[in-house]
Amino acid sequence: MLNTVIPIAYALVAFAFLFSFFRLIVGPDAPDRILGLDTLYVNTVALLVLLGIDLGNPIYFEAALLIAMMGFVGTVALCKYLLRGDIIE
Amino acid sequence: MEALIALVIGVLTASGVFLALRGQTFPVVLGLTFLSYAVNLFLFVMGRLAIGVPPVISDAAAYTDPLPQALVLTAIVISFGMTAFVIVLALKARAELGNDHVDGMHSDEDAAR
Amino acid sequence: MLEFLLSALILTGAAFTFIGSLGLARFRDFYTRLHGPTKATTLGVGCLLIASSIHFSVDGDLSLHEVLVTLFLFMTAPVSAHLLAKAALHIKAKSLAPTPDEGSGQPPHSS
Amino acid sequence: MTLFFAVLTPFVGAALVALASRLGRSYSAWAAGAVTLAALLWLAPSFPLPFAGTTLIQQHDWMPALGLNLAFRLDGLALLFAGMILGIGLLIVLYARYYLSERDSMGRFYSYLMLFMGSMLGIVLSENLIQLLVFWELTSLSSFLLISYWQHREEARHGARMALAVTGLGGFAMLGGFLLLGHIVGSYELSDVFASGDLIREHPLYVPTLVLILLGVFTKSAQFPFHFWLPHAMAAPTPVSAYLHSATMVKAGVFLLARLYPALSGTPEWFWLVSGAGLATLLLGAYVALFKHDLKGLLAYSTISHLGLITLLFGLSTPLAAVAGVFHIINHATFKASLFMAAGIIDHEAGTRDMRRLNGLWTFMPYTATLAMVAAAAMAGVPLLNGFLSKEMFFAEAAHISADHLGGWTLAALVTLAGALAVAYSIRFIHEVFFNGEPTDLPRTPHEPPRWMKVPVEILVVLCLVVGIAPALTVAPLLAVGAAGTLQAPLPEYHLALWHGFNPALAMSLIALAGGATIYALRRPLFALQERYLDRLDARVVYNALLDALFALSQWITRTLDTGSLQRQVFFFLVAALLLGLAPWFGSATPLAGNRQGLPLDPVSLLAGFTLIVASLATVWLHRQRLVALITIGVVGLVVSLAFVKFSAPDLALTQLSVEIVTIVLLLLALYFLPQHAARERNLGRVWRDGAIALVAGSGTALLAWAVLTRPYDTIAGYFLDNSVPGGGGTNVVNVILVDFRGYDTLGEITVLALAGLGIYALLENLRLDAPDRDAAGRAWNRDPYPLIMATLTQLLLPLALLVAVFILLRGHNQPGGGFIAGLVTAVALIVQYLAHGSAHMRERLSGATQPVIAAGLALATFTGLASWAFEHPFLTSTFGHMHWPVVGDFELASAMAFDLGVFLVVVGATLLILVNLGALHDSRIARKAHR
Amino acid sequence: MNGLAMHLPILPVLLPLVAGIVLLTLRSAPLAAQRGISLAATAALVPLALALLATASDGTQLVYKLGNWDAPYGIVLVADRLAAWMLMATALVALFALLHALRGDDVKGRHFHVLYQLQLFGLNGAFLTGDLFNLFVFFEILLLASYGLLLHGGGRLRVKAGLHFVVINLVGSTLFLFAVGTLYGVTGTLNMADLAVKLARTVPENLALVEAAGLLLFGVFALKAALLPLHLWLPAAYAHTSAPVAALFAIMTKVGAYSILRVYSLMFGADAGAVANLLADWLMPLALVTLVAGMLGAVAATALRQQIAYLVIASVGTLLAAFALDSVDGLAAGLYYLPHTTLATAAMFLLADPIGRARGERADRFEPGPAMPGAPILGGLFFAAAIAMAGLPPLSGFLGKFMLLRAALESPWLTWLWSAVLATGLIGVIALARSGSLLFYRTHSTTEKLPAPGTADWLPAAGLLLLGFGLVLWAGPVSDYATATAAQLLEPQAYIDAVLGGRP
Amino acid sequence: MKRLLPHPLLTLTLAVLWLLLVNTFSAGHMVLGLLLGWLIPFATRSLWPQSVCIRNVPVLLRYLVVVMHDIVVGSFRVARLILGRPSSLRPAFITVPLELKTDLAISLLANTISLTPGTVSVLVSDDRRTLTVHSLDTEDAAAMVAEIKHRYEAPLKAIFESC
Ligand code: NA
Ligand code: NA
């Protein structure tokens, strides 16, 4: 059962990835693009979790954790840039 | 898969080269970042591509080549330091030269000398 | 039974991930786009993480560290969304609904 | 050692003389005299040897393996020249004492003079050719100093540079010539060279050797067409001219002709080149001398002419001609030195050297006039004076050769013409200076010079006379020994006497005397002709044109290459790299792809690859919208980390992810101070060109990667996999490589990071940038610097993030992670606090001292490495062990962990240093404003 | 061997590193203390280099296995004659440049001494390493330190030059990694001795690939060495940085030259089988063109420091022409020329500083200026330095040139090399005579208050010149050592055996 | 005590998180977890708010359950809207008057709103008296405000603002 579910899940997440990327490229405004990037990061977490389950190797967990953390930091920094220009003031 | 990776390395290099040849500091920095992606990926795949065999000793039968990974790690750190430096230098140049052209000029015409 | 649960979780998770991003791609203004990723995607990834946790716990030792990522995502997603919305409001991104004033948060007089 | 010391003495003396000048003006002169005498004394004991037919050779090892030793030689020729150099040198020292004015630095003058004297002495006493060349170039250098002695005068500076350039040209050519000669002979020692005369002359490299050496000779001895520097060198003080242009510098060239005569002469090439140049110089010099209004100019061209004469004699390649050449060297030195000194006296006393103004000085300085007249007569070749004797020998040889060679009497006629011209300019020198009416408009009223200024002239003039009258009793032994030294063979039959009976030579002498008088009498139409047409013909014009061309060419090439454009540099480098990378493939049988089995392509990878490519191209396309480019490049970084994950490199993925975010934060910090948008480029040609280069570079690297990836390879990786646990105590092989197998790389890597931090810190000091008060679209910034929700919640995240960092640090040795990633996570966690709360808030709560953290990290890593010394193991040797504590249980401790902790600290310190200081740029500006 | 002697090869690397760390720790200590530490650490490099020279002089190739891992798995340091030679040159230049810096340049910005020590760490590490990737790492260290030093003090032109220097070198580093990566991808090793063994066995189907990697590596080294047309970074960088840094940079181009010599004698030399003599067609023409272009640049220069910078380029051409001869005599000539040109260039840069200052606002520009105070001593030293740089007797430049020309006698490049070397020699004389004459002779009186140079202003330069004169006085032993070094480089098997311990 | 152990609750939380992180529940890691749980807050104590007071733990637990339930429900609702016709949406900005005073409580409320049915917190007014929320599909704005205040704000006030 997992063998059929996982490819479907891959496909769904891949499309999610593509949609986010589409928004990132198309914009039109900077917040749209940042939101696209942020979602792309979260999609990547999903992808990594899937990969971990698929390969049966828990070694991808740290990458997922870090992506979640770093995606957040990136979004915060980019938003702060839009709001204030100077991100560390 | 090898062809895709080769293509990706090529695109990264091409983007890096094009941007590194621009006249303003910011695209040059982006170009250098691209080049470091390209070369890190290149150096990494010199250990050949392998899926699901990370070089962490377990009861697995095979492992990928760990050496290029260690080299790339070193290279990433170094290029991070370099990128940071060049970014700050770009700011310094902006302050000293009055604009963000790499040669301290305003127009493309001047730069095309 | 367990495999069924696992499959259901994975499928649900993937589906929500998909739907969240679909909303991002589909909707017509920034503020409506914001909802998909903030809720659906977060829940989707959460489901996948729980699936992973179950998957690895069954294979060997208890694997609960996925909870950590989930926790982390649930803590950060709303903050990101808030900041993004604030930024959009600041740059006066196109909005289907009349936008409130940046300082007081009051709706514009016209509405 | 005596010869070596003789040469060394003037060099050491130069310093003494300079020091002596501090005691007083005369002390320099005394010291210089003493130095000259000392050199003479070193040589004196050896003087009898050449007369006894012995050649003294002294050797000292210097670079024996290269055939370059200090080797000195005292034979007849060397003796003759050494005597002239020191003897006339002594007279010059005396003369200059009175010549130089109060304003001139005595110490500097005599010091240069001693340098020059030592160099000259070195040339003539050298046994080794390369050593000879060393002294040869030293004469050029010291004469540069002497000629430019009056450096405030433009003609002195120009003259000196010209002399240096022309003689420098010769010197470099001669270096080539000597190297070839040494190559042919197998030794640079003159003894060996003399013994290999036939070998040399028959060698295929003979002609290039000869030409190169002659270039040296001709430039130094001012032979046509290199003669032009000499008149300009007259800008030197007259004692210098008297010394350099009579007995020494210019004689170095003819000395070398004489020196190498046994080895190189006797071939048609030698004959035509040497005597051809000599004849041309003889005639040209004599002709031009006639028209010079400047006394020293006249003497200079006369010198050129006489050097031509000597050169011509050596070119004739007969032993008798060589003897005549040596004889004329002696005679010319005596009369020309005295004439220069006389000219100097006139200049000194009358304040000008212009013969159009100098008239009738006989009435003011009859004694000096008498001396000058005798010397001039010697120069003209008047009987009873030494010049007559050697010139007659010259005429005889010319006549003799003319009889033998094609062209019949042409040579005889031409040398007679030259003789006539010499007579004419000698008459002019005497007549126009001492007679010819009253002086016009002289700066001062001339009178006789001080007593001791005349003495050197007197001595030389007396020598001219006694040699001229009784050669056999005076100069004969010296000439014999000098000629023998030249020929390195038994001397030919010759007879030194005033009267040789009626012969062609006598006829030629008489014709020359009569002709000279006639020419002088008819000088006015000649002068008019000369001034009208021929004055413009000057080799200096060619020299200047060449020099101008050199400067123009240099400037053109340099400016064409170096426009100060970075883009150009990068472009050159890329093109060079492409050429280098592509070159081996042309005409090579190497196939591009190998036969290794690849991995299948899966849809998700394809999607990721597609995303990366689109994001890259989007970045390139949108790079002028900078924030957008930053976001798209973020995607690229993310996908690259995904590739690391996919292909079994979790450590790399973690590192790439963390670096990515820090880089984006950095770029955002920077972007604030940079333009948000860039204008479209107007130079589309450049865009296309760069696009093409990018395409080729991209294809090149893609193909390179493809070529490697499709090939099998053997690697040393197996060793690391096998030894990681037993030898390194860790299961994460990448980490074990980083902290153990190749810990040295890592030490270097963290040093780079520390350096980046410190360098940035230094860069940021005093950096002031204008902070824009509104964004790119012209909107004012948001009023809320620290949004509440962000501030509150990021604070909650800090301990969590730090916990993760510790986790990553501690497990790095066995699982993906390690000091670097942990350091970045820590730094990022702290940076988020800065983002949320601002620098001021953080400064209040956290000591901003990141540099001690860096230092501690570096120190920890280094001293962990050094600890292995205690166990007599090399630097960075690791150790590990398993511990058991109650409650806690089993765990492993490895020295590599301490090393990794060092890495962690450096990363945290450096990253924070960079980000926080960059973030504080704006802050400091506000603070500054507030302060004002 | 035990005690410190056992660790001799790594001491020249660790000493500056530890000094750098100590200086960073004590960054708020009194200036005198910081200077003392920096100076002591730098001075101590001289006896260390001497000890290594003494050890290497009998042909010993000390191998230091870092982490006690055997080559080719771990990184090794190899202290052979060449490495010791480079260390010596570095130590001497560094010491005198530092002495010059102590008269005030070191306090014009932050962290001068830390950067300086880490620069030495990078340089010495690069000269000693036996591992290609480690060479990359040390290149980066020395580059980043040099960025910091180059920009030390700031100023418009300096920042622009620094930006160019940094960017071009970053592109260069990228290429380095591409080349190293390819070599690893084909041979599976990084140790240079092991690479030499493996490269010599290159199969025909990998030949072009390996050659491409080898040539790309050459591109990198050529950039560092400032070989035409990759020299454009150098004139501005050297001309606009501070004097002691420019003097220290005299050794920087030599790192490129060193790497070319090391890599192409060891890995692509005559014994390298299919990949033998890889550079044969490239190096000599490029070197000669560099020599000519450098010298023409020196003629075209409009200021003294710019002129010296171009002379550096010319000297790189000369040096690499010597190496390109690929014979014992040729390499020996180059190895003799190397310390000469390093010392002379450094001295010249150190002199340009007080000269520029003594000329007031004219600085070192080639235009008539005020009569400078201290002209006799500065002029005398300039004269000596110019003689050395122009390759005139009796200084070491002449001997180097003599050895080079002599070595070329049997070369097919004889005519080209001789023409280039002799002609540029003359051009150099003309250029330097012009600048000396302009700076020292063509002066006018002035009311400008010009500072008279103190002893400290010229003493380090004089010291360097004196050292250069030592190369003349002891030309015999020095050239013997250079010849022995050359012989050692052309017989790489001993190096390989020493590193790999005789393993295949 | 306060000084040495600034945030006992946090220490415990971190220790638990550590065990989650290392995925091992050995004694050694418990010790290490507690150690880190103490060390990290201690080392960063200057960056922490004076203290977080939590009363009413049962309310907290009930609140968590409610929120989790709402997240799931809210996600399904949003999913339906996403899959439906975008033009049928009725987006609106809604102003929620705030009674909460503390930073933490306001932030948590905002977060909760963002995670639950069709709303995202957009803005806290400068005077902190109102919270502006964007609603994806608005039927009755007033009812929505009431629901938020009742369902989330009240318990949060009870948990964090009753000391
Ligand atoms: Na988020
Ligand atoms: Na140099």
List keywords for this structure.
heterohexamer, A: 89 residues, mainly alpha, B: 113 residues, Helix Hairpins, 4 helices, disordered C terminus
Structure description:
The complex is a heterohexamer of chains A (89), B (113), C (111), D (932), E (504) and F (163). In chain B, 67% of the residues lie in helices and 0% in strands. With 113 residues, chain B is mainly α. Chain B has a single domain (2-50, 63-112), classed as Helix Hairpins, CATH 1.10.287. The N and C termini of chain C lie far apart (54 Å). The mean pLDDT of chain C is 86. Chain C has one domain (2-93). Chain C has helices at 2-26, 30-33, 35-59, 65-91. The longest helix of chain C is centred in the last third of the chain and has 27 residues, at 65-91. Helices cover 56% and strands 11% of the residues of chain F. With 163 residues, chain F is mainly alpha-helical. In chain F, strand 2 and strand 3 form a beta hairpin. Chain F is globular. Chain F has helices at 8-22, 27-43, 57-83, 103-115, 141-160, and strands spanning 92-97, 119-124, 130-135. Classes of the chains: A mainly alpha (89), B mainly alpha (113), C mainly alpha (111), D mainly alpha (932), E mainly alpha (504), F mainly alpha (163). Chains in contact: A-B, A-C, A-D, B-D, B-E, C-D, C-F, D-E, D-F. At the D-E interface, strand 1, helix 6, helix 7, helix 24 and helix 25 of D face helix 2, helix 5, helix 6, helix 7 and helix 9 of E. The structure holds sodium ion (2 copies). The site of one sodium ion has 3 residues of chain C, from helix 4.
